[in-house]
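From the methods appendix. Each design record in this collection lists the tokenized structure first, followed by the designed amino acid sequence. Records were kept in a plain field format so they could be parsed without special tools. The example shown here is representative of the layout used throughout.

RECORD:
FOLD TOKENS (217 positions):
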């Protein structure tokens, strides 16, 4: 039976910015990768019609996911900055429980609880929603948390960590990030931290490039 890995993230590029190389590594090992994205990210381009940017962001995410060997990308369509309200209104807990039951993942990735994409706080709110659900179903798999906007996260420095050697697949992460043409300006300042973190964590892990995660379960 194929092992499944699920990612729950706020926006369409977060699964690449965070665990992108590790997902590529897992895919090469034969694991199925399923990504669940909470928002279409319409607010990223306020001058464009929402349906235009939705279509663009969905296609970019699928193109990037193909590069890292992902199997499926699902968009929940929640409003940015309104995740908690929409989750309650749309009975999201039930829908996410059904998805987890359907795919039965052995590993889940999501944001850390202080990955604060100010002012929206969408990232920590995804953590809050996902961890609440996993606790309610007594999830027995491994849960890893990643940072996007808090690259060196000193607050969580005492939590257990997991490093993955991604030296052979790090270039796939960079190629996948190139797919997000609509986000190039926003991503430009994050790309430096992506590279610096990979080198630094690789040093800690005795390899060229690595990704680090906090072990939540």
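DESIGN:
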């Amino acid at each position: 039976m194929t092992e499944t890995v699920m990612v729950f993230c706020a926006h369409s590029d977060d699964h690449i910015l965070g665990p992108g190389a590790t997902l590529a590594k897992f895919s090469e090992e034969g694991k199925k990768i399923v990504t669940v994205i909470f928002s279409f990210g319409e607010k990223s381009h306020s001058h464009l019609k929402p349906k235009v940017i939705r279509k663009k962001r969905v296609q970019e995410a699928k193109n990037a996911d193909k590069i890292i060997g992902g199997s499926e990308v699902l968009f929940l369509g929640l409003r940015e900055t309104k995740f908690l309200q929409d989750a309650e209104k749309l009975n999201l807990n039930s829908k996410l429980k059904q998805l987890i039951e359907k795919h039965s993942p052995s590993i889940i990735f999501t944001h850390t609880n202080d990955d604060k994409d100010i002012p929206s706080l969408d990232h920590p709110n995804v953590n809050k929603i996902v961890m609440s659900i996993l606790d309610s179903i007594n999830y027995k798999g491994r849960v890893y948390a990643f940072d996007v906007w808090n690259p060196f996260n000193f607050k969580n420095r005492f939590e257990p960590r997991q490093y993955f050697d991604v030296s052979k697949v790090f270039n796939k992460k960079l190629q996948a990030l190139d797919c997000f043409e609509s986000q190039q300006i926003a991503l430009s300042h994050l790309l430096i931290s992506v590279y610096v973190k990979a080198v630094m964590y690789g040093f800690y892990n005795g390899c060229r490039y690595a990704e680090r995660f906090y072990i939540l379960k």
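APPENDIX NOTE: The chain has one domain: 4-215.
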